[in-house]
Write a structure and sequence with these properties.
This protein has about 190 residues and is an alpha+beta fold. About 25% of the residues lie in helices and about 15% in strands. It has 4 helices and 5 strands, in the order ααααβββββ.
């Protein structure tokens, strides 16, 4: 056995010296476009999005507004909680959603990372065409399959998501799902 151990250690050392990765690395998000982008169909739209949590580089951005809009559709957050700022309220709401999505143990962490984005992605359905350049995307909620939340998505190549923001005066406006940090606590 000692000879086998030495052989395994020597092999692992050689692999590391050659730059061979012995375990798969986590997928990295491509946020270089600066917005939540769209792929053909509704599946895989969220697969490459940034990890969001309180204190993340994008904790205060319209991308957080998309997550909060989903949390609102799930009736976990109130309309007034959709403010594009990922604070304690949003983190706790994400934990509730993660449980609804079937997460357990350490996966219920209040972080919207690759696993959570993937589960949310599986709940997106293409709706009808809105106009020549946009289409509706529906988010199917976990509790009631007849209850849908609507996003507007640009249909152009590398299109972008828009979400409905009710704002402080309860007027509905479409906001682009940008990763650009916001000044203040309101979606822009």
């Amino acid at each position: 056995m000692p000879g086998i151990r030495r052989l395994l250690v020597a092999g692992a050392t050689a692999a590391l010296a050659l730059g061979v990765v012995m375990s798969p690395s986590p997928a990295t998000a491509d946020v270089s476009k600066g917005y939540i982008d769209a792929d053909p169909g509704a599946q895989n739209d969220f697969e490459d999005e940034a990890t969001l949590w309180p204190g993340s580089p994008y904790w205060n951005s319209n991308a957080v507004g998309v997550v909060q809009t989903i949390l609102h559709a799930e009736r976990i957050l109130d309309t007034t909680d959709v403010d594009c700022a990922y604070g304690t309220t949003t983190a706790n709401a994400v934990k509730t959603l993660q449980r609804r999505l079937g997460f357990t143990g350490s996966d219920v962490d209040g972080v919207v990372g690759p696993k959570t984005w993937a589960r949310l992605d599986n709940r997106l359905v293409v709706g009808p065409v809105y106009n020549d350049s946009h289409e509706w995307i529906h988010y199917r909620t976990t509790g009631d399959w007849t209850r849908l939340r609507v996003f507007l998505r640009a249909r152009v190549s590398d299109g972008t998501y828009f979400f409905r923001y009710w704002g402080l005066d309860a007027q509905s406006e479409w906001r682009q799902a940008l990763y650009r940090p916001l000044g203040g606590s309101a979606c822009r």
